[in-house]
Amino acid sequence: MANIPKSIGAIDVQYVKGVGSARAEQLKNIGIQTVQDLLNYIPRRYLDRSTIHKISQLSINSETTVVGRVVKIKKIPRPRQRLIVTIYDKTGLLDGVWFNQVDYFAKVFEVDQEVAYSGKIGFYKGWQMIHPDFDIIEESKDQLHTGQIIPLYPSSEQLRTRGLSSRGFRRIIHHALEKYGTMIQENLPAFLIEKYKLMSRPETYHAIHFPKKMEEINQPMRRLKYEELFYMQLLMALRHYTQRSGIQGAPMTTTGVIIQKVYQKIPYELTGAQRRVLKEMYNDIKSGHPMNRLLQGDVGSGKTVVALIIALIAIENGYQTALMAPTEILAEQHYINIRNLLRDIPVSIQLLIGSVKNQQKKKIHDTLKSGETNLVIGTHALVQETVEFKKLGLVIIDEQHRFGVVQRGELIGKGLNPHVLVMTATPIPRTLAMTFYGDLDTSVIDEMPPGRKSISTVWRKENKLTQVYNFIRERADAGERVYVVYPLVEESEKMDLKAATESYQFLQNKIFPEFNLALIHGRMRQDEKETAMKKFKKGEISILVSTSVIEVGVDVPEATIMLIEHAERFGLSQLHQLRGRVGRGLKKSYCIMITPEEVNEIAVQRLRMMEKTNDGFLIAEEDLRLRGSGEFFGTRQHGLPDLKYADLVNDLKIVEVARKDAFEIIANDPQVRLENHQLIREYFQENYLAKYETIRIS
Ligand code: ADP
Ligand code: MG
Predict the structure, then answer these.
(1) Which ligand is located closest to the Cα atom of residue 553?
(2) Domain region containing 385
(3) Does 297 reside within a domain?
């Protein structure tokens, strides 16, 4: 019995009865390789027979679920193209109506299929549901499928053609539990199970796939969420611990001459929040262990100057600093601002971006290697193999969310355990920060520099454009600057660019012939963009038309109006970022969001939120709620496991307790060796460390 796998995570899913090699192939496409993966494929929702309504008993506007057989599938071309899929439940007929993706849905349904519709009941020549949430049930007489509660699994056309409909999944999962159910091992120690009154792991999988009562579903879900978050936090805790223990960071204790000079040159007082986070960071870098800190602050809260001061401390202590920004424009702006601030101060800085000529690049590389350059500001050009540092002691990463862990790691790897400071452009909701940046210490600048006037934000439909243009004319006449931004998405880049270009010509020739306008977009050469930006800053150009490339970082205090065209196409955080480009001077500023007459509901919520608040933290929370955590942050680029069960919008409490438990365990038992951590150790090693870490527990 030598080669009996000890865990269901090691048994190929093809051995489950009813799967076989062809279906196993399909399953692999959706990430199911092992029996464990299959059990982790949980129902997207459940249908409770006791709450299903008969069509004869429907009432208008009620939210309900109806189950019936498809009797008719019909495309109607006019007045508006739509698909009607009529179902019959022996008491009456109900139309499911789709206005979008008509051809796609026409293929999803077949006459005689049993389906469930959930949604709001309407009436138009009969009962109807518009865009119902639907499931194809394919009931049969089969015992397995006649229970009170029907679990419904996510499926797709492709899976269905392989017999992996919702019902197909129920069947193979049933087989998997029957055969391998007894092999499901507990992976949480008894003290945690007791503490939160969790279901045992084997019970959990039975209950989540084949619940007897609707009330039972919360328990397995709670257990799966906790388990998932606990292990994620254990990973964070171990990283956090490893980054600090044993490893020597460069102790940076000298402060003085340069800092004093710089303080004198900064034309303002630091805010209390800026001083506080500086202190937090200074404590880190003098500690002798590497700093690993996330600096959060709303747009315009003044993160740059704080980062600069820390950089200068590193430089005074004889170390080099690298500051990496996501775009060339932003890197250049940092470079220009910092160079101005450091004029007459003996610190040597360089700008290293892709568009720098090769010969010049080579020179910069040489000065980095020799140690002659103290501070280098750049883009991902900094992580090129040929870049070497003499003594890199501090790495600063601006607008962190645009870089993957890989790039971050590559830059860090160019030093010997350098201190690391990552800054985010937009505040990150707490649950996300704890989850995806949970290994970093966090500092927050929660106070804006004084004198900032809140930006008036309004949403206007296109038919109000004439008034908006008149308003812009007034402000531009008074010498203020205006941004006009067009959306640009990669998929339709050409068309978007065309639209932006045409609008620019229209604005210049027909609407604002008396002003100088310029267009900037991502396809332009770097020096052309820069020239336009400079002219805009100086006032030689009053109205700058751009695609969303100016989103980050650009600083023009005289700009008072941000006009966003097709605002419905921007995400909430993106809108907030754009708004942050104005309101940086003394004059009252405005953000005007233009949309077509008709806008979808989610976009309406985004626009209303923008009108309601200037607070980036509130906006980030709302953005997360509207988008869901999966989309808000690609977890993949963080090199972390996807969250399958936990929902970062609603599960803050669980994140918090899981985090506390995990950090306590690592603090007391960093190698996870204690007797009562044995279960954790094995599972953690196999499912987390082996997959996501270079760190090892010995
Ligand atoms: P962000 O946090 O978005 O990166 P920046 O660092 O670009 O913000 O700062 C935004 C603007 O605020 C800059 O023009 C900067 O000079 C200015 N600023 C920063 N700190 C203060 C302060 N304490 N008082 C006044 N202005 C400040
Ligand atoms: Mg910034």
Answers:
(1) 2
(2) 261-445
(3) yes
